[in-house]
Amino acid sequence: MRPTYPAAVYLCLFDGDRILLQRRAGTGYRDGELSLPAGHIEPGESATAALLREAREEVGLALGSDQVRLALVQHGRADGDTYIDFFFAAALPEGAVPVIGEPEKASELVWAPLADLPGDVIPVIRHGIEALGRGDAYTEYGW
Fold first, then answer.
1. Which of 136, 11, 12 is nearest to 74 (CA)?
2. Nearest-5° angle of CA 57, CA 61, CA 67?
3. Distance from CA of residue 53 to its chain's centroid?
4. Class of residue 67 by CB neighbours under 10 A (exposed 0-12, middle 13-18, buried 19+)
5. For 121, which DSSP code?
6. Which of 35, 52, 86, 93 has its CA 20 to 30 A from that of 66?
7. In 7-137, beta strands by DSSP E
8. Strand 138-141 to strand 106-113: parallel, antiparallel, or no bridges (unpaired)?
9. What is the pTM of this model?
10. Which residues contact 18 (CB under 8 A, 6 or more apart)?
């Protein structure tokens, strides 16, 4: 039997040298820690479509596919799960202001310097962000 892994998308939204993080809340997974706006790819949905949907739902941004680029793929094992993660990079559109779109899942938005991430970023997410910052196209975590 072939293994199958869940896939998730992550929005790496940049404003200059800062990246947008959100504090998880009320989800039961790593609540209180920082992550990226993210979500699972739904059945019948492409990775890009999932990323654009999550950007709208989680931070209120209506990005177009021409405003995002796949920057990193991560094959990771963390917290008992194995995932294929797609990290997409995008620049904050002029005049756009991210907002918490799902207050039941996030309590705070934080702009953090890419070179000096806060200590409470979820480790598997930190690994991906740091790999992206180095310009890696692929990374592995937890193997």
1. 136
2. 120
3. 13
4. middle
5. B
6. 35
7. 7-15, 18-24, 34-35, 38-40, 68-78, 81-91, 106-113
8. unpaired
9. 0.96
10. 111, 112, 113, 114
92-131 confidence digits (pLDDT tens): 999 999 999 999 999 999 999 999 999 999 999 999 999 9
Query: What is the percent of the chain where pLDDT is above 90?
Result: 95
The whole-angstrom separation of Cα 9 and Cα 19 is 16
Rg, Å, the chain Cα set: 14
Alpha-carbon distance 9 to 73, whole Å? 9
Record the tokens describing residue 95, joined without a space: 């005049």
Burial (CB count <10 Å: 0-12, 13-18, 19+), residue 120: middle
- 135 band by pLDDT with thresholds 50, 70 and 90: very high
Domains by residue range for the chain, with CATH: 7-141 (3.90.79.10)
Where do the H-state alpha helices sit in the chain?
A: 47-59, 123-134
Residue pointed to by tokens 């920057």: 71
